[in-house]
Amino acid sequence: MKLLPLAALLLATVPTFAQKARSTENLVQYAKPLVGTARMGHTYPGATVPFGMVQLSPDTDTVGYELSGKYNPRVYEYCAGYQYADKTIVGFSHTHFSGTGHSDLGDFLVMPTTGPLQLNPGTADQPERGFRSRFSHQNEVAEPAYYRVKLDDHDILAELTASNRVGMHQYTFPQSEQAHIILDLTAGIYNYPDKNVWTFVRVENDTLVTGYRQTHGWARTRTEYFAMSFSKPFSSYGSRNLSKNQVYRGFWGRFDQSQHFPELAGEQLRLFFDFKTTAGEKVKVKMALSGVSTEGALRNMRAEIPGWDFEAVKRAGQAQWQQELGKVVVESPKRVDKENFYTAMYHAALSPTTYMDVDGQYRGLDQNIHKAEGFTNYTTFSLWDTYRALHPLYNLLQPKRNADMVQSMLAHYDQSTMHMLPIWSHYANENWCMIGYHSVPVIVDAVLKGVVPAAQAQRALDACVATAHQARFDGIGLYEQLGYVPEDKSGASVSKTLEYAYDDWCIAQLARKLGKADIEAEFNKRAHNWQNVYDSRIGFMRPRLADGSFRPRFDVLSTNDQGFIEGNAWNYSLYVPQDPAGLIAKMGGEKKFLPHLDSLFTMHLPDKFFAETEDITRDGIIGNYVHGNEPAHHAAYLYNWTSQPYKTQARVRMILPKMYRPTPDGLGGNDDCGQMSAWYIFSALGFYPVAPGSPEYALGSPAVHGATLNLENGNTFRITVKNQSDKNVYVKEARLNGQKLTRPFLQYTDVVKGGELVFTMSGKP
Predict the structure, then answer these.
(1) 201, β-bridge pairs
(2) pLDDT tens digits, residue range 389-419?
(3) What is the 3-state secondary structure (H, E, C) of 403-463?
(4) Which CATH number fits domain 30-323: 1.10.540.10, 2.130.10.10, 2.70.98.10, 2.60.40.10?
(5) What phi and psi values does residue 227 have, to the nearest 5 degrees?
(6) What predicted TM-score, i.e. pTM, was given to this entire model?
(7) CA angle 166, 168, 169 (to 5 degrees)
């Protein structure tokens, strides 16, 4: 049997996808990659396919991580490499995070230029002094799998598209005797002078260049390989080595390595490739990536984009997006609703990202080469964010992919010298960012919902338990000894205690499923540790010291140095998703709990209370409710555990239009690898997973006029909304398959077996 290249298979599927797209609506038109590129969203506008390994996108500035030997706060604006307010583009690099609050990547920046060769990037206020270029948003188009912009200073039209592992550039040049394509291996996101450990380049022939780059950044030990192919032979080439203070240089000095030298190595390399172009001539570039080898990168290129048909690659990419977006077909008479919804669907399918070659090989946490047998290996696990709603969304809409993500986490565990599941990992590295051990709820939720095969359940439980017992990590040893993390020994102690307790509850649920009574009892006890940081005298969670006392200095509104991370006591005191009823009782019952919850959304939080944190800004705040950060994402749904669930409905419908708009500044905070978008998707459909690991969703108030969920098992789940309007935000009645719901909850099994949920809306509670 002859095997077709992956690219041929991709292109062969285009008619099928296209027919499917014609039979429904073109959903790609509603997804807006520019949403979130202004201010705090930290998204990128470039070309990628669902969960693609390549994110080919423009970078608009070269702000460094370091300024005068200290952290440069401005670099935070450039977590995705692009800010909508900027007026120049430095180039197009191939790897980007979507919506993060810290960063890395920006690999292999490519920039086409004309005129005298310039090998420095220039500055934003004087772009003509370097290779960067001015641009206008009027000449910029961003669609799923496609990006286009006019580079005004060079009179070049730049177009980008991508397959999973290959980025494709198409540059339309003017007539020029001095046309160049620059490959900058010094550029990077969250860059600093010593971030590059080493770079290596081979000019294989006049159309092919290979190499790799090793960096020391958020990922401490990261190696990325590339193969770069040109559609037209370059007439000449050269390089500049910007490395400094390299004491030993060997005997390479006998060669002039700046011109036409085929093998280059150094910490800071920039290369240029010269062409002569006619007016309107298109020069194309393919850049394939691999975490394994240049041979792997070449194999990826030949499999996915063997030819030079840019439009065919674009069509194939957009066909994949049409299929991805079509997992949920929503109805609304307002275009803005569809743009919000499908932009959220788009952002929710950008990460985690594929991290293996077409032959299944990938670099592991141990820096050895492994082969994924029977699953796709993924990376970019922003788990402190995504366990809340993104992975539960995958369990619903694409369980096979989420099962592969769980397998990737378990492979990470197997390769870990710490015997821990991922905390925040990317590119064969653990960067230890944020708190909790939130692989646990992702894995437990997937196992309990039958997404992960039962045969893997014991292996999953063992990994979860081992992770929860790793005493060296972030106060866990103290947590096990005292029942809480003491603030005088480990900062952000209240947040850690609360999040560990929730993760522990998840482990208890899996242990119960497997009949492990001793493990269930141990972790059920740990799941109640949230009570140990609740100060009943003031009605808030509060940091405790190692001697058992509550810390005297305490401000319930401040987000800085109060025992919490990316939130304050008012928000975090509501974080007991595993036991809202127990929390309500602990806080004195509904009589005291409801005013507290009400005030979260109605009180004013002065700027001074979040002035010292870059992760919380006015953009993402409603009252004292910080939607732009994750710890309170479940808070609006807590009314469902009281006698006033109608307030959940009103709050959700209030949050949706305030925090999400289809504009560049339309996200009220970092999208955080899709978590903000997943919150929107669930909430717009009318339900939300308050506690992953539980079989229940809490009902809210649907914002759409109707929706059909096309499930992976072949079933469809229909959401019908009667009397929908902007004023009718209250659910008068909800019926599941004709039966009236008497509680504001829905079961996961109710959805995946297919059926219909009918909401009847009203303007009154």
Answers:
(1) 211, 264
(2) 999 999 999 999 999 999 999 999 999 999 9
(3) HHHHHHHHHHHHHCCCCCCCCEECCCCECCCCCCCCHHHHHHHHHHCCCCCHHHHHHHHHH
(4) 2.70.98.10
(5) -135, 125
(6) 0.96
(7) 150
